[in-house]
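Model: You mentioned two targets. I'll fold them one after the other.
Researcher: Yes, keep them separate.
Model: Target one:
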Amino acid sequence: MKPILENWQRFMKENREPFEVDKEGYVTLYHVGAGNLEELDPELAEKGRRHYSKAEFRTWDRPRLFFFTRLGQEDPGVGRVQGMPYAAKVKFDKLYPINKDPLKLSYPEMREKFREITGLYPHHPRENNVYERVATLAEKLYNYEGFIYPHGEETIVTMWKKVPVNKIDIDFYGG
């Protein structure tokens, strides 16, 4: 009985969608950061990244923004993130589910298309970084602007385009 329950729990975790998509196709994402912003810019975020972000950027150096998918969500590596809470409305169809990779952009057959788009030589370090290869292909071929991916037990979103945000006047962690 226990293996059935464990398999069911794993299935539910892998197939859950933490997003509520509104009638216009938007989802609400949450960011915690510096105060008084109207727009988040990946280029600026990269310059002011915090210590816990630096490890993320060592594995993939593309400037990007990180978003939670629900209020009160904690970062599995650092816990509660300090700062001002913001909400962003983003078109759900602009977010590529990298863990599912439905377009098979991470597959070896797509390396040639990546080289064609970027002009890079075979086995260039950017080609060998799967995140960068998939991001480039997703953006250039299909107009995606970010990834949906699991982060610990949670789901997060990372975006590599500027995102308008609204400050939300609540305690993000409800305490």
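Model: Target two:
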Amino acid sequence: MYAKLKYIILTLLLIGLGLSIFNYTKLSEYESISKFYFPAILFSILLVFFFLPRKWKMKSIKLTLTALGIGILLSIVSAFSTYEYFDNERRNKIFAEYSALNCEEMNERFAKDLENDELKHFSGGFAGTGNLGKNLKKYNIEHFDLGCIIQGNLMCYSELVWDYLKEKENVDITELYE
């Protein structure tokens, strides 16, 4: 049993290491370095496990199962960070695509998004958005909080979304901030 677990733990270690390296190289431009401490600590603990004397690992099934749990946790944390990276890239691509459109093109894009059930909402300003993103999900609308940036062409699209919510769902956008 130990030999099988050893290879499973080693596989999890390598998967976690590979994803962590990928995340570090890709996410370091978005995130602070402290985000990578937890995976690094998990990796270090697993590495120590492999250099422990074999008789200690054979005697204590708890030690081996703990290493297995840490390996699973490392893989999950690394996989989540990888998902986060690809989600950031997808959102950046959408933002860049919509930023390049003018208001007339936004009308066409809104019609296409409405047909494909892929509506988006862009909001910005000094005030926070509260629960707007969570409430828009109920209507299958993806929310993009732009912070202090407000672009006129994106507001054209958001106004179309507001009108859609008012007409089809009988909901005012201001109600969704609560």
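Researcher: Noted. Anything on target two?
Model: The mean pLDDT is 80.
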